[in-house]
Amino acid sequence: MTVDIKKAQDVYKDAGESVIFTTLMLNHKDLKTEKDAIAEFSDMSNSIINSMRIRDPEAQAHIAWGFGSDAWDYLFPNAPKPKELENFKEIKGPKYTAVSTPGDIFIHVRSKKMAVCYELMDQFMGILRPITSVEDETHGFRYIEGRAIIGFIDGTENPAGIESMDYTLIDDDPEFNNGSYAFAQKYIHNMEAWKSLKTEDQEKAIGRHKFSDRELDDDEKLPNAHNVASKDEEGGVEHKIVRMNVPFSDPAKDITGTYFIGYSKDFAVTNRMLTNMFTKSDRLLDFSTPITGNLFFIPSKTTLEKIADGDY
Ligand code: HEM
């Protein structure tokens, strides 16, 4: 089936300048109340975002939100289930582990203005707060020149613009076409250790030149350079996902990290990238520790309408 971008949430746009990532847990107290609130949120989220785009078009607000596997089973036990939606299974490499952590509802809001992210989240939480608790809330930002906080331009090999929907929108699961899978993983960096590396050693670790962003020749890269270890070339073809990572930091507390978010129409691709990174002990992992790991299904607007109408 061909995908229809008009039916999709914002799983293909840019990473934004100010970003809020929120992971919520359902209260599991009263299914009917929780289901009603989710139906209301499914109905209202689109109009809240449309209203914000009218109120401040320049802010370029974008939002995607969705469900973890346990939440889907709890809320919609009799409905069909997106075929790849399951709890993320921890990946144990020889040195490092991609942990799996809880998450029922995920919201990814971004805009040119933090005020707009705040306003959207404030309205969303008005509906969701009574039925949830907060598992994680991370405020990210676009770093100078669109660089990752480790100093390298991030997203160069990402599919760009309209092309990205070919990689993010589900097209082989009829009930859930135009939805997407989001993998969210919050990393804390050891910035002191990273900064103590010489620029050439950082470049060998990432596989690109720091200033110009040009790719290093293969024989200049470490065998476990990030852009070698993260590649998915299953079946001799390069597979891509859409990454919208941003840094976050509490500088006074010396806590700095990257919130990784990858959208794909086929979670298996993201999972193979992760498996490669952790089994090959990607050099980036010597300086980056994941503290969360969740897979979420991001429904299309068609699915959100069904949820709003109580069809599930
Ligand atoms: C600590 C978190 C991470 C940081 C700071 C980071 C940063 C970067 C940077 C700077 C690049 C090079 C430029 C580019 O093509 O975007 C890159 C490439 C890439 N990253 Fe990451 N990344 C992180 C985690 C991940 C994870 C978890 C995945 C996979 C699930 C991933 C997948 C990729 C892929 C596929 C490429 C492109 C490789 C190529 O074809 O050249 N990254 N990343």
TrEMBL record:
<dbReference type="GO" id="GO:0005829">
    <property type="term" value="C:cytosol"/>
</dbReference>
<dbReference type="InterPro" id="IPR006314">
    <property type="entry name" value="Dyp_peroxidase"/>
</dbReference>
<keyword id="KW-0479">Metal-binding</keyword>
<dbReference type="GO" id="GO:0004601">
    <property type="term" value="F:peroxidase activity"/>
</dbReference>
<dbReference type="InterPro" id="IPR048328">
    <property type="entry name" value="Dyp_perox_C"/>
</dbReference>
<keyword id="KW-0560">Oxidoreductase</keyword>
<dbReference type="GO" id="GO:0020037">
    <property type="term" value="F:heme binding"/>
</dbReference>
<feature type="domain" description="Dyp-type peroxidase C-terminal">
    <location>
        <begin position="147"/>
        <end position="301"/>
    </location>
</feature>
<protein>
    <submittedName>
        <fullName>Dyp-type peroxidase</fullName>
    </submittedName>
</protein>
<comment type="similarity">
    <text>Belongs to the DyP-type peroxidase family.</text>
</comment>
<dbReference type="InterPro" id="IPR011008">
    <property type="entry name" value="Dimeric_a/b-barrel"/>
</dbReference>
<feature type="domain" description="Dyp-type peroxidase N-terminal">
    <location>
        <begin position="13"/>
        <end position="142"/>
    </location>
</feature>
<keyword id="KW-0408">Iron</keyword>
<dbReference type="GO" id="GO:0046872">
    <property type="term" value="F:metal ion binding"/>
</dbReference>
<dbReference type="InterPro" id="IPR048327">
    <property type="entry name" value="Dyp_perox_N"/>
</dbReference>
<dbReference type="Pfam" id="PF20628">
    <property type="entry name" value="Dyp_perox_C"/>
</dbReference>
<dbReference type="Pfam" id="PF04261">
    <property type="entry name" value="Dyp_perox_N"/>
</dbReference>
<keyword id="KW-0575">Peroxidase</keyword>
